[in-house]
Amino acid sequence: MTTTKALLIGQRRRLALTMVGGFAGLVALALVIAVVADLADIRTVAAVTDRLVPLLVFYAPAPIAAAGAYARCGGPACLTVGVVPALVFAALVVVGTVFGVPGVGAGDAPLGGVTWSFALVGLSGAFVGYCAGVTAALLADLAGIGGGDDGDEE
């Protein structure tokens, strides 16, 4: 597969699915732990998740997308990483509303606005990361150290 097609469309589907699914699982786990720690009033865990959740939601999509672009997972997978935190957040709120988890339901919170904000921040970060990863992959190919057209399609 040519380098351009591999960078845009992707040539490593399994790695791309693992990247997106693993990140979604990590974000979901962090959010659930944060909710449980808050409900159980476990201050140490709540303090850790207070630092971890913003890191995962706002800052992690850019480097993950950059690594995915460098690994030639493709633009769609890399940009999906940016939307994952918003989707996981919305799913958590819906599940919390359905099962009546205190402090998690939609209630008076502007669910749509918060979800769109998470999605826009994550998507813009993932786009910047994707561009950086593509640039790094192209420069590595020019220098002869990249994994350009190695033909290991999955």
Compose a concise summary of this entry:
This protein has 154 residues and is mainly alpha-helical. The protein contains six helices and no strands.
Q: Give the structural class.
A: mainly alpha
Mind describing the biggest β-sheet?
none
Distance between the termini: 11 Å
Number of helices in the DSSP assignment: 6
Shape summary: elongated
SSE sequence, one letter per element: HHHHHH
Count of strand segments:
0
Radius of gyration: 18 Å
Q: What is the share of helical residues?
A: over 70%
**Approximately how much beta-strand content do the residues carry?**
under 5%
Mean pLDDT: 84
Identify low-pLDDT runs.
none
What does it look like?
The protein is mostly helical and 154 residues long. 77% of the residues lie in helices and 0% in strands. α2 runs antiparallel to α3, α4 runs antiparallel to α5 (75-99) and α5 runs antiparallel to α6. The termini are close together.
Task: Provide the descriptors you would attach to this structure in a database record.
77% helix; single chain; 154 residues; mainly alpha; 6 helices
Question: What are the SSEs and their pairings?
Answer:
Layout: H1 3-8, H2 13-40, H3 43-59, H4 61-70, H5 75-99, H6 111-143
Helix pairs in contact: 2-3, 2-5, 4-5, 4-6, 5-6
